[in-house]
Amino acid sequence: RYVVLTSKHHEGYTNWGSPVSWNWNSMDVGPHRDLVGELGQALRERNIRYGLYHSLLEWFNPLYLDDKKNGFKTQNFVFLKTMPELYDLVLRYKPDLIWSDGDWEAPDTYWNSTSFLAWLYNDSPVKDTVVVNDRWCNNCSCHHGGYYNCADKYKPGTLPQHKWEMCTSIDRRSWGYRSNMQLNELMDESSIISELVQTVSFGGNYLLNVGPTKEGVIVPVFQERLLSLGKWLGVNGEAIYASKPWRVQMENITNSVWYTSKGSTVYAIFITWPEEKVLKLSSPIPSSSTQVTMLGFSEMLKWEKAPDKGLLIPLPFLPPSVLPVQCCWTLKLEGVE
Hints:
The chain is 24% helix and 21% strand. It is an alpha/beta fold. The chain has two domains: 2-239, TIM Barrel (Alpha-Beta Barrel), CATH 3.20.20.80; 257-334, Immunoglobulin-like (Sandwich).
């Protein structure tokens, strides 16, 4: 479990007192607070891992624009601005994760990425614990990194061989806050949970973005979405946290049932409640010791072998509204293959 804060986005404003961003940082302008430091302390008090997003490029920085004009044959911006900031972030805040971005215009020889990463993994104070993503040069994404982002809102469609992360935003149209956003432009609770489930079934991490206002406030509609997701995880988190992909990620007959696993236990998460109140699972192979329960429901569920293969599981005779959550329910299967 981790939180990622934008330490600096493409416009160059830093949310800490960067010594190379004079008068364009959160200590000099705006809140006059070290936001990177304050959030890091709060998260660590709650035993939550801390990640820092950092943009390599800056849209309007004259040094960067001059290097770009020179075909990235000069590196004044790299050595005077972006690399000093990365080293400062690591030495000062010791993040668990570095979420690099803004890499796409130039090669690694310009960004000096390999030199920084070599230091990070061999000599930095976080060398034994830090994790990085795959955005360090213009041909790096989905090829090199501790884990892969590949692209914003990336969905692999099949089980990748490399650890990956799906990064998306509650506001479908923006990563930052928009005062004119409309309700139909936001992900609803069921869309968020369904996307989380599919991501974890394929072995990915799910990073959900909210854009705060200029005052640093997370607006009520975003709070409601996050609290709903937290409520769902309170019931179904056993099937999500520390889980691993199963031998099958989803039922072939439908995309409304997704699987995760933990040891010998298999979790079947179904997105929609079947009208006939009987859920068919074709992939698990039952045995005489098979037991089926539903997370958030205390009683054991009955089951029977399906005529062809798998299980037929009559669901509780309760409307979904009586159950603890309003979408995406989890069956815990023990004693199946």
